[in-house]
């Protein structure tokens, strides 16, 4: 039987257009060890681990006439050097130059004729650092059969590179006739699916109202969950991107939580809310007292029949998307936090939520995979129901290494969806909390300003008295 894409995976291909490529990215910065860490060593590391990710050597093959969903097939021309590329920054190698490169690379769609991922080994950063930029299509990472490459190449201790013999051999690709015969055979068993497949490529593969009712626990009606457009956040998206980051300390969020209650995730959302309020005011789109910005917040949940959150592969678990109204109209930072904590409590009370300490037991650098799953959860829903996406995944609080190079920091790069000019990813790692702000180059050209406002908003929460 053909390895056919799931309906959800296929929908990411159908929804993609040049302005909104459907891949998730990440940028990790490493300290180069004394003995060095170069492109060849990194290439060898990826080659060593690629055997655990067979999907990374497969491409998508469409069925003639769209009689069935596309299939995964081995790439008979697979070229690791094409997917793992070498780049360098010009002197002086400032972080801003790196993030400008991230924006340019992440704005380009992946090559549909090859496996849907790329990685860039970037040299030339100041202070003898190197960076790794990854981009992986949402159709690839499902968290069960395939995790994100960034999760697999990192270890809890330095590792010397190993030379491995690559015995992988590509299986022959099916021809057009075989693709059609397989589709017809399946159509005999499920005749309605042929019509559905043809329709899927011609329409936006958005989720139904029923999916939203499930995501919200059946609380809100379809009419109540439709989001109001919010100034510069909701405009047609261009093909250009800008990327900015924020570096904060986990201890600051824990102190605010201890003083005012809630969870660390609530405090993260409150800091973002305060920044969005000031950013909208600076844009002349000042929110009224009751104004909110609706965020789609993907969160890890346990399978209803599972007592524990599973380890490395996340098998039996899922990421559910929750709508959270961020009170940007509220001037008091503590009241903003309390409002968010109240909304998030409904999820915590469901009994399916996964505590941060459970996620930290997941093998490897799980946030890379969890952000990809969060993007999948967001991408499966219509953008009419939320104003922006905010993902937050806790990471390990111990150093991680790629080969012998220690990872200093990591920033997620969440994709933009149609008519939404901003996406925010947050990851904690080794005492830090790192924000990645991906914005449309025309509509959200000043995401660096928003980043500074997140820092100010956190300081406001730290100093707030109640």
UniProtKB/TrEMBL annotation:
Recorded GO MF terms: diacylglycerol O-acyltransferase activity; heme binding; peroxidase activity
Domain Plant heme peroxidase family profile: 163-448
Domain of life where this protein originates: Bacteria
InterPro entries linked to this entry: Acyl_transf_WS/DGAT, Haem_peroxidase, O-acyltransferase_WSD1-like, O-acyltransferase_WSD1_C, O-acyltransferase_WSD1_N
Swiss-Prot/TrEMBL keywords: Acyltransferase, Glycerol metabolism, Lipid biosynthesis, Lipid metabolism, Transferase
Pathways involved: Glycerolipid metabolism; triacylglycerol biosynthesis; Lipid metabolism
Annotated EC: 2.3.1.20
Annotated Gene Ontology cellular component terms: plasma membrane
Catalytically driven reaction(s): an acyl-CoA + a 1,2-diacyl-sn-glycerol = a triacyl-sn-glycerol + CoA
Family: Belongs to the long-chain O-acyltransferase family.
Listed name of the protein: Diacylglycerol O-acyltransferase
């Amino acid at each position: 039987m053909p390895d056919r894409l799931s309906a959800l995976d296929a929908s990411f291909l159908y929804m993609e257009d040049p302005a909104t490529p459907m891949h998730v990215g990440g940028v990790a910065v490493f300290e180069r060890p004394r003995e060095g860490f170069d492109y060849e060593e990194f290439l060898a590391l990826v080659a060593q681990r690629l055997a655990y990710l067979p999907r990374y050597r497969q491409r998508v093959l469409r069925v003639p006439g769209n009689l069935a969903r596309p299939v995964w097939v081995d790439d008979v021309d697979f070229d690791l050097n094409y997917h793992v590329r070498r780049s360098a920054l010009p002197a002086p190698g400032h972080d801003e130059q790196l993030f400008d490169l991230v924006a340019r690379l992440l704005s380009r769609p992946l090559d549909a004729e090859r496996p849907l991922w790329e990685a860039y080994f970037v040299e030339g950063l100041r202070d003898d650092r190197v960076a790794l930029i990854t981009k992986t299509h949402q159709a690839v990472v499902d968290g069960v059969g395939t995790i994100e490459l960034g999760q697999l190449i990192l270890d809890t201790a330095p590792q010397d590179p190993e030379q491995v013999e690559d015995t992988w051999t590509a299986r022959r690709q099916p021809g057009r006739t075989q693709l059609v015969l397989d589709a017809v055979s399946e159509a005999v068993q499920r005749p309605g699916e042929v019509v559905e497949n043809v329709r899927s490529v011609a329409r936006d593969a958005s989720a139904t109202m029923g999916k939203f009712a499930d995501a919200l626990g059946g609380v809100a009606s379809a009419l109540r969950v439709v989001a109001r457009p919010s100034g510069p956040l909701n405009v047609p998206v261009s093909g250009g991107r800008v990327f900015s980051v924020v570096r904060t300390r986990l201890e600051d969020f824990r102190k605010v939580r201890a003083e005012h209650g809630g969870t660390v995730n609530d405090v993260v959302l409150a800091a973002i809310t305060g920044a969005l309020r000031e950013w909208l005011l600076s844009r002349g789109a000042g929110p009224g007292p009751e104004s909110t910005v609706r965020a789609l917040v993907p969160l890890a949940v346990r399978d209803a029949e599972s007592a524990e959150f599973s380890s490395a592969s996340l098998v039996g678990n899922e990421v559910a998307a929750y709508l959270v109204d961020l009170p940007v109209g509220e001037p008091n930072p503590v009241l903003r936090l309390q409002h968010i904590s109240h909304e998030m409590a409904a999820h915590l009370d469901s009994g399916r939520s996964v505590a941060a300490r459970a996620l930290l037991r997941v093998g490897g650098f799980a946030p890379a995979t969890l952000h990809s799953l969060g993007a999948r959860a967001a991408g499966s829903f219509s953008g009419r129901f939320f104003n922006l996406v905010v993902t937050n995944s806790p990471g390990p609080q111990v150093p991680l290494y790629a080969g012998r190079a220690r990872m200093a920091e990591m920033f997620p790069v969440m994709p933009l969806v149609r008519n939404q000019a901003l996406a925010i990813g947050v990851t904690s790692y080794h005492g830090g909390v790192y924000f990645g702000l991906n914005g449309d180059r025309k509509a959200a050209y000043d995401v660096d300003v928003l980043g500074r406002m997140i820092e100010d908003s956190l300081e406001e929460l730290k100093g707030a008295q109640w």
